[in-house]
Hints:
Helices cover about 35% and strands about 15% of the residues. By secondary structure, it is an alpha/beta fold. The longest helix has about 30 residues, at about 250-285.
Amino acid sequence: MFYELASSSWSQNEIDAMQTVIDSGFFTMGPNVAAFEQEFADYFGKKHGVMVNSGSSANLVSIAALCYKNERPLKRGDEVIVPVVSWSTTYHPLQQYGLKLKFVDVSLDTLNMPAEQVRAAITPKTRMILAVSILGNPAEVDKMREIADEHGLYFMEDNCESADAVLPNGIKTGTLGDLNTYSFFFSHHLATMEGGMVLTDDTELFHLMKSMRAHGWTRDLPEGSPVFERSGSDHFEAYRFILPGYNLRPVELSGAIGREQLKRLPEMTIQRRKNLGLFQNLFGGDERFITQREYGRSSAFSFTIILNPDADIDRQKVFERLREAEIGFRIITGGCILRHDVVKYYDYDIHEEISNGYIVHDQGFFVGNHPSPIEPQLNRLYDVLNEACS
């Protein structure tokens, strides 16, 4: 393949870190995971980090924790505002905990839901805003945080695709939510084989997630935890269950890799943004293609392209040319969730009319970005699309 969707971001340091864990003979969640949690939280300026086995699990344990808060827990039937374009596991935990999804359309030029549309979508039943920054491009999460505070709502950031992105005010995405989730899948900004993280400043939510991550037990919680009172028996406390939890634990290999990846995150983001600059120079101003407009500074997960509906371009012809040129491409994130069969299981409502989400689904695709130079690939991409769309 001439231009892959993703490539490995590991250096020899990640391999050496894995070998150290292998030599230790200790593989389940342990000191490397704990160290990575703290280092990751410190990098983003948050108090607490909870590592899990995927970004999807990060979303799951976050929603679960909000449903078991001592005060003002989320309850079945409560409404959560979400964008109509995101990955499937942004939505699934909401359905699994009996919450009602309120879908808001996205802007074609950012692929994110506008803050003012979020404000307009709020009803007396709304309890939370779940914001998603799509493929590295910050959503207006600073404005949404203000809206959530004005209305007394929980605010959560699904930042799984946008680690190291920066808002116009200099604050990083994935730091403004009551809960903020990240993914460390192969193609993401940090790759730990599989893995995810939740960041929070809320100690109660932190302890709830630590319990939910590991069977719902108390073993990992300290004395004085706000979510339970310790009994007098350590024998019992080692296997005392207080919540209907899961097993979402990561492994030591992933924690060790994450620590090395985090050291290199700034340089990898710099390279991704250099590639973004080349992409913008090639495609900017070409009215046949709608590409992402930055809000702040994107961390450039990938490069999205929407074939302008006014240009009457045959997307299948474009796809054929890309395949012939050995250029990888795929649907933008998960496309418009309303086009997927799974929506029949959701309790949901739609704010006003959805139009852009369907255009993203029907006319869009993305190609990969990498933490390494890809100028020849981007030049070839433009040449192929220019010919296919002439």
